[in-house]
Design brief:
With 176 residues, the chain is of the alpha+beta class. It is built from 5 helices and 7 strands. β2 and β3 form a beta hairpin. The protein starts with 20 loop residues before the first strand and ends with a strand.
Length: 176
C-alpha cells in the first residue's frame, strides 16, 4: 500500500548512553558539523547560527579561526565512532566560555551531559561560563546539574530567530 510505513523502514532511536569520547577535531568532522548546522530546528534552539548556515565558506572560516586559536579548546563529541557534536571553550577576559552542539538525532540520550562531564574532569580552571538562550531547556539542565548558576541575563540578537532574545549567563564558580 502506497504511503505505508513498515516497522522495517523506521530506524530505531539510539539508546541513552554515556559512551562518548572527547577528542581532537579531525578534518572529516567538519563535514559532519556542517551537516549539523543545516538543521533548522537545532539552529532555532541554539539561537546562534550564522546568517546563512548553508554558506560553507563562512563555516570554514569560523572553524579555521577556532582551531587556529591556541587559547581555544575544541573537541569532537564522538559516539560509536561517529562525530555527533562539538564542544568549544574560548577565553573571554581570561575566563573560559563553554559552548556545545549535539546533532538533533542524539538529543536526550545523555551524550551532551557525558561530554560536558568529561570536559569538566579534564579542564579544571574555574570560573567557567556559558551563555544559553533562556528557552533552551536542555542546555540549561545540562549546565545546572553540573553546578552552573545563573549569574545574569543579556539581550542579544539571534540570527537564527531574527529577533532579540534573552540569554542566560551561567557560571561554574571557582571552588572556595
Amino acid at each position: 500500500m502506497a504511503g505505508t510505513v513498515t516497522a522495517d523502514a523506521v530506524e530505531p532511536r539510539p539508546e541513552r548512553s554515556t559512551a562518548v569520547l572527547l577528542r581532537d577535531v579531525r578534518p572529516e568532522d567538519l563535514d559532519e558539523f556542517f551537516l549539523h548546522q543545516q538543521d533548522e530546528q537545532a539552529n532555532l534552539m541554539s539561537a546562534f547560527a550564522p546568517r546563512n548556515p548553508r554558506d560553507r565558506g563562512v563555516f570554514d572560516y569560523h572553524w579555521a579561526h577556532l582551531l587556529g586559536d591556541e587559547d581555544t579548546i575544541v573537541r569532537t563529541i564522538e559516539h560509536e565512532g561517529r562525530a555527533v557534536g562539538a564542544l568549544v571553550c574560548t577565553q573571554q577576559d581570561g575566563v573560559g566560555e563553554l559552548s556545545f552542539w549535539t546533532a538533533q538525532d542524539y538529543w536526550g540520550l545523555g551524550l551532551t551531559t557525558a561530554a560536558v562531564d568529561r570536559f569538566l574532569e579534564e579542564h579544571t580552571a574555574r570560573p567557567l561560563r556559558a551563555h544559553v538562550p533562556e528557552d533552551n531547556v536542555g542546555s540549561v539542565k545540562v549546565l545546572s546539574r553540573r553546578g552552573f548558576e545563573t549569574v545574569g541575563e543579556e539581550k542579544v540578537f539571534s540570527n537564527a530567530r531574527a529577533e532579540v532574545i534573552t540569554e542566560l549567563v551561567m557560571e561554574l564558580p571557582a571552588a572556595d
